[in-house]
Amino acid sequence: MAFLARLSGALVVLTVFQCLCGAVSAEGVVGYERRQMRERSVGAGSKRATNTLATRDANNTALQFGSGVTRAANVTGGPEVQEVDFVDGLEFCLQSNQAMTFNVEIDNGINPGTLPDNTTALNSFSWVVTSSAPLTQVNAQMFVPFNRTKLVAMHPNGSSPSTMLMVYKRPLNATSGGFLPVNANQQIVRELPEDRIMVPLTQMDGRYTVLVTQARPVGGTGALKLSPIQILASRKAGRSLA
Ligand SMILES: *[C@@H]1O[C@H](CO)[C@@H](O)[C@H](O)[C@H]1NC(C)=O
Ligand SMILES: *[C@@H]1O[C@H](CO)[C@@H](O)[C@H](O)[C@H]1NC(C)=O
Ligand SMILES: *[C@@H]1O[C@H](CO)[C@@H](O)[C@H](O)[C@H]1NC(C)=O
Ligand SMILES: *[C@@H]1O[C@H](CO)[C@@H](O)[C@H](O)[C@H]1NC(C)=O
Ligand SMILES: *[C@@H]1O[C@H](CO)[C@@H](O)[C@H](O)[C@H]1NC(C)=O
Ligand SMILES: *[C@@H]1O[C@H](CO)[C@@H](O)[C@H](O)[C@H]1NC(C)=O
């Protein structure tokens, strides 16, 4: 009974969290269109004020990739969960006690020597996240978009190709060692129409990419393991998971 209560609590939390922080988006809808959709789906102004876990700072929406202060996401620091999203659908929902800025750059080309055995890179690029406070612990969810058409064109062997996707990370400035999975058993592939992988992060900095790996069982238990920010979200909503 207690377990069931916890389970349904977890599902409610996941749902609330995903509605507010991951409320997007049809494939291929970018920039302004995307923002408009979000205004409608998340709700603007008054609704936000009464009914949100995440602060949607308009300045941190549809950011361009690249370096420099004008392309930096500004994280204010404090108890609020902030949303930051980029033009391709890459998004962060994060809470950081310390103020920081971060940039995301696209780095083209992936050295095959940095990929683990039996994995293939979905994209020919990685997202390079560089923050002003690399050692700071954050409670964050990263939403990483994937291109389903491209995935299917690779003829992966699993019966459900999206279960083969996993976000991997390599430290910045790494001179040896390859990509490693980020919190492998807590990643959640969010299917059509969203097509993004949700990954909990405790630190921002790194080089991230999507790899095609071994198929995982569909509907595995991973989705029920709560990440720190999901727990945080539930506390903010006044729910107890204990
Ligand atoms: C958001 O942008 C406005 C206008 O560009 C600026 O005045 C304000 O300081 C910005 N807020 C943050 C948190 O960067
Ligand atoms: C972050 O803050 C800096 C300095 O205030 C500003 O120049 C920049 O435009 C801000 N970034 C965003 C995405 O609003
Ligand atoms: C890679 O795949 C081959 C063939 O299926 C298998 O023998 C090998 O153990 C796999 N290696 C890893 C690291 O999973
Ligand atoms: C997805 O991949 C397909 C096949 O590589 C490509 O034609 C299409 O433009 C890609 N879509 C986006 C949004 O990048
Ligand atoms: C599918 O399996 C075959 C045989 O095990 C292997 O040669 C091929 O590389 C696999 N395809 C992908 C996309 O992993
Ligand atoms: C990576 O190298 C750059 C330039 O050499 C440096 O500014 C940055 O602090 C380094 N980052 C880390 C995490 O070591």
CATH topology of the largest domain: Chondroitinase Ac, Chain A, domain 3
The chain-level structural class is alpha+beta
Mean pLDDT: 75
Shape: globular
Ligands and ions found: 2-acetamido-2-deoxy-beta-D-glucopyranose
CATH C-level class of the largest domain: Mainly Beta
Tally of DSSP helical segments: 5
Q: What is the correct CATH architecture of the largest domain?
A: Sandwich
What are the main properties of this structure?
seven-stranded antiparallel beta sheet; 5 helices; 242 residues; binds 2-acetamido-2-deoxy-beta-D-glucopyranose; six-stranded mixed beta sheet; signal; globular; disordered C terminus
Please describe what this structure looks like.
Residues 1-26 form the signal peptide. Keywords: Signal. The protein is α+β, with helices and mostly antiparallel strands and 242 residues long. It folds into 2 domains: 2-50; 55-238, Chondroitinase Ac, Chain A, domain 3 (Sandwich), CATH 2.60.220. Helices cover 22% and strands 27% of the residues. The protein is built from 5 helices and 13 strands. The strands form 2 sheets. Strands 2, 5, 6, 7, 9, 10 and 13 form a 7-stranded antiparallel sheet that branches. A 6-stranded mixed sheet has the order 1-3-4-8-12-11, with helices on one face. Helix 1 (2-21) packs across helix 5 (228-236). The longest helix is centred in the N-terminal third of the chain and has 20 residues, at 2-21. The two termini are 13 Å apart.
